[in-house]
Amino acid sequence: MIPRISLLPDHVANQIAAGEVIQRPASVVKELLENAVDAKASTIQLILKDAGKTLIQVIDNGLGMNKSDVKLAFERHATSKINIAEDLFALNTKGFRGEALASIAAISNVETHTRTSGQEVSQCIKIEGSKIKDQSLSTKPQGTSIEVKNLFFNIPARRNFLKSNTVELRHIIDEFQRVALAHPEINFLFFNNGNELFDLELSNFRKRIVSIFGSKWDNQLVPTKESTSLAKLNGFVVKPEFSKKTRGQQFFFVNNRFIKSPFLHHAVNSAFDGLLRPGYHPGYFLYLNVDPKTIDINIHPTKTEIKFEEEQSIYAILRSAVKHSLGIFQVIPTIDFNQNTDLDIPYNFKQKTPIIPHIEVDSSFNPFKDPSFSSKQNNDEREGLLPEVNSKTDHQDIESDNIINVPQSSRFFQLFSKYIVCPLQTSILLIDQKRAHQRILYERFLASITSKTSLSQQLLFPLEVELNGQQIEEFNQNKEILLALGFQMELKNKKKLVVVGSPEHCPHSKIESIIEKLLSGENSPQSVEYLSQADQIAKTLAKTLSIKSGDLLTPIEQQVLLDDFFGCKETSVSPFNRSIFISLEKSEIEKKLN
Question: Domain 206-328 carries which CATH code?
Fold first, then answer.
């Protein structure tokens, strides 16, 4: 009988193991950066081509490796970090399993140059799909340079699952920022396709945060510090007024390692109780130092999850420290947020008795005697505000292909500062003003992008916006779309975006916040298609610039909104696939009244 069980070949086993550790280019970047940190480097360079798909190179000035070490480094389970099982519970380094380099070498072409301080020449080794192709000498400075080329070249199916360069670069930037934030004492440089994205000089925690995310962050940070026998806490939380609807600026570091912990996140969240608007999340950069023996970081291949021996105590320390910091810096209010302080009674008047005012009523006054208030004239004025909709114009019903004709004799009005009520002959339309306006703006912006004939309003004074590395990359990728929308801008001195013109419907006061939102990287689609990117930007702009629920509209503004809305190509749903209006039939109303 032919045996059905056999040992996998080494190269196949390595490829399978690589799948656990190397999921995308960002995974390679993480492992190589952490190795450079463990090598005690003071300067680390990250160089990419095509968002890491063609090349990922990390150069450091660390300790380097000798001839025998560089060869062993690419073998599975080869590590300098542990010798016995107990060492797993006393780790102060990033990598320790000995899987990363072997996994990378199994699915790419790797070229390594490394040199220790005692060597006159550097060692060079070239590996393709786990097989050593060449080992020689080279002339490189002390430290290590690892080039990873053609990632997943021997696993086409995995390569096909990679996203667009924009998406993959964003994941790489995330990993880069996490390592750079954990080690402000190291100088980090980051280049993509020859463009410098980051040059982070050695500094302290606060300066490192500001150098990555921008100078505005310096005024948004509240220092947080606590020291106990169990743990030491250092770092910053973001002031509540600068909180965001996304979770982008949430960083936990334990013993200088970035981790994800819903448990610790809940502790911070609870400290912010009552301070955040609904739907907003706290921002924080918190560094915990604990005894390595009291934590387990070996519970996930990516080493981003952690288990604490004293979870409840860590939770209490964290929550208390954050709450205390918010109180010290007078972030916690002394009065109710909803209370209008203008109505408070001044101290000098609290003991005085109010004087009851004398009210006089003119019983003979009758406003209807004045002809200017006649109902006929009032009706005539109201009719002049109605939308002039051609009776031949077709408007699609949300639930069917029925034609909606809005006659000139109809009445419309605003309800709850949220809906526009538009009576028809046999039904009533309730139109969501925010969603209708989003649809109007969305179609206008898309038309501007495709035709490239948008109108631009010139700014009286140029506006300067400082960009961080990620925003610069986003700008370079989306510049053509932004210009087509009507933005007139230019990047100067590598980091300053000078804006001299904006789209016609963009208020001057919102330009800076809109640019930051468009270049945040949070709204980009998963597709590389130009139209997909343009579509997402158009949606973001429409959402940002549209009128909101609660905005009071004059009759003229209501009329303009209806005219523009019924002129849209699509009237049933908003750009975000939400129903814009509902139709109440006369029969439904009569049925409810019976």
Answer: 3.30.230.10
pTM of the complete model beyond 0.85: no
Q: Which two tokens stand for residue 563?
A: 């005219």
Encoded tokens for 514: 């809109």
Residue 374 has pLDDT above 60, yes or no: no
- What token pair was written down for 288? 């915990």
Tell me the per-residue pLDDT of 224-272, one tens digit each, with 9 for 90 and over.
999 999 999 999 999 999 998 888 789 999 999 999 888 899 999 999 9
Strand pairing of 55-60 and 427-432? unpaired
Report the range of poorest mean pLDDT among 342-351, 381-390, 480-489, 511-520.
Answer: 381-390
Nearest-angstrom CA–CA distance, 243 and 176:
23
Q: Are strands 43-49 and 55-60 parallel, antiparallel or unpaired?
A: antiparallel
CATH of region 405-594: 3.30.1540.20
* Rounded CA separation 509/269 (Å): 31
Distances (CA, A) of 543 to 68, 167, 536, 538, 583: 59, 22, 11, 9, 24
Q: Given CATH 3.20.20.450, say whether it is the number of domain 10-202.
A: no
Both structure tokens of 174: 């995330």
**Does the pLDDT at position 569 exceed 60?**
yes
| Mutual angle of helices 530-545 and 511-518, in 10-degree steps | 150
pLDDT of residue 22: 86
Domain locations in the chain?
10-202, 206-328, 405-594
Sequence-ordered alpha helix ranges (H) in 111-243: 156-160, 165-182, 205-213
Gap between the Cα atoms of 482 and 537, Å rounded: 9
SS3 label, residue 26: helix
